[in-house]
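Here's what a typical entry looks like (peptidoglycan glycosyltransferase):
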Amino acid sequence: MKQEPVGLFEKYFIIWFRIVTERIWTGDKKLRNTAIAIFAFGVLNVFLLTGSIKDFFRLKEAAVYDIPSTLYGLTDKGEYEPIAEYYKFSRIPVRLEQLKPEETTLSPDNRHKVIQCFLSTEDNSFYSHNGIDLKGIARAFVVNLMAGRVKEGASTITQQVARLKFLSIERSIARKAREAWLAFLLELAYPKDKILEVYLNEIPLGHGTIGVGAASRFYFRKEVQDISWGEAAILASLTTRPTQFSPIVNPVSSMNKVRVVFRKLVENGRMSVADAEKEYAALEEYYTNLNRSPNDSAFSDRLNRFPYVTEYIRKNLIRSIGSGRLYNGGLKIYSTIQIRHQEEAEKALLPALQRQTLESNQRAFRNIDAFDDLYGSGYSLIADLYDLPDFKFHISRTERTFSSAYQEDLRDEFFALNLLTGDDFLGDLIDKNYTTQTTKDHLLPVEGSLIAIRPETGYITAMVGGSGFRSDNQQIRPFQAFRQPGSAFKPILYAAAMDHSGKNPDPEKNVTPATLFADSPLQYLMEDGDEWAPENYSSEYSGFILLRKALEQSKNSVAVRVLEQVGLSNLMESLRGLLQLPGRDIPYNFSVSLGSFELTPYELTRAYAALASGGKTVNPISVLYVEDNAGNVIKDFRKEFDEDDRKQIISKEAAFLITSMMKDVVEEGTGRGVLSYGLNRKAYGKTGTTNNFRDAWFVGYTPELVTSVWFGYDVGTISLGRGMTGGKLAAPVWGRFMARALDREPHIDFPWLSEVKVTKKTVCRMSGKLPSSQCHDLFEEYFIPQTAPKDICNDHGSSWNVAETKQAASTNVIHTEKKKQEKVEKLTPSTKPPKRKKSVFSGDEEIDY
């Protein structure tokens, strides 16, 4: 048994329908009432199919454009300057007031030539109809009927605006009905000039351009206000099929369509035949000199001065504000990138990577037939016996040979022929093949990274992500390349160790710059039964050596002994705080001391930035804030990196000591290459080279800037070549960048120096202890007061002389800001080491070949 609807609306509709029906059939005029009812229901049905109440509220969207967003960087003067644009389609909004009236007498209509061309070709009666041109519809119907195909459209400019703003491009009666309905509403809501302005800014004109402003700049490299009659005719010719009639893709078809535009101008009385022929002939020079790829697009013309920076910021902004708003919202994005720093970073790193690619000379494996030749038959037998799958890469030798010959010899010839013929399909195929091909001449590119951060603010001022931003090379290596830091990790380890000693003083285990360690071979038996024997880079050992000198010479054995003496568990909290690795942890083994676990350049630079800021964590930031098109701040990233979020991980005293030690690395140790380009300010840093020369690092800072430079292959098992150390490859690039990036900036000191209190003592260079009367080689060293040495050196005479020896130098706590210019004496360099032997973890001392 059927049941009545239970919904309130259904009940009300049924009751209302019954009442209306009774009234229609009540009385003498039943036929008339029936006709009225049928007509009313028909009108209601048409409205429901073509219109909606929501349409009235959407009309305001018609005058709102999707505008590209702009990324800004800082100049030397502290002013913001555009460095990139974000959009999917190029659009340059043009106001109708910008299109000033014509001063010539070529046309009785004095409106701008662009307006006249579009009105003549698209809707000559635009200013006289109410959104729907009934005469035009009838004319188009007859023309199309006689031609047997769709030859002429019947949409007015207002209808085209309705379609462009609110509808799809499908061909259907329902869509045309909605188009007419929306056109009618637009005519009620906006004046004619505004509708025309929207049209000129919304019409797609090919090659990724939207509107006459972007199209004029793409096709003619001019602003739309400055184009000629012929160029305006070209724009008007692109409204129906932009690709087919593009002057870049099909010049002949374009010229024929432009002739039609001039004929329309003549037919509509806007131009005489003579003037039209003269303006058309003037276009000959444009077509003759047109020498552009058919696959050019406005996207390739977009402002993008620093692609790696642009891509990194784009990815971050999409997560925070969304892609739609980024590409179409007309946002103004104010970044921390300093244009001078970024330019110098690219000048320093990119040529060095290109040179190193040639010098390392690592070629991609091409003899892919070797396995098939030697073991192919055997593999087939084994595959049959054990049901193994076929090769994943299964291609005939003939096809491989042709592919190689095509990429090296034939493809460039095909590309030249395609430019002459203008075939769009073939051009797309060739372009796609170019973008998917590997490096030229099959040389594997040496990749690299450079990232610079202000230690006090965390502002990222420069970033280079590799050897060149291409479709096949878009990895942002400062953030995505996980590599072993090698000896570049030692300053972090030593800083944590000295900080622990300062907070937990123990005369037997204190670690200071003057602590004496044995530089001798080590060997450990691991839990799995394997042996681990870390070696120095040169396989040469110096016996007992002070920690300051060990860092200068990058002694691996000393780094392991420091960790062994203090204990990894005692340092883990400080190491975690300096590295800030959410979701990852530091491996709990002694190889940590040699930088055996992987970090990104960004993570390592951030840890050094903590040292440069007096032991406080640094929160790097690349975008300060984002404004909408009206100038309102919609996202302020500065609030996320407030000063209150910074934590004191190690003491300022420990940060000062390791900074002092890294100064020796630059001036006397493995980082001397930093000084190659005349850096005229104090620098502190450390080199790093990993096993088999797979990675080369230099990470360091001045009071103004912290920077890391890394060299290596993306495949982490490939060597850069024998002798390719951090001191040879990365240090000179670091020095060049820092010297030129900071050239115009004033010299400053670390702002936290005034708060540092250390003890300065004169100690014996041999033992690091207080000198006795027998000690003659002395130098001054800094100590955290709790860890200052108290023992007197007895390494130069008999034990009975020790008791009579008095302290040679008094202890005094000093403010380092007043005496920061004092220089610690250096040890006499030892003789050059012999050639390196095989080692498990490499240091990066200088080596003589």
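The CA atoms of residues 408 and 420 lie 21 Å apart.

More examples are in the samples folder.
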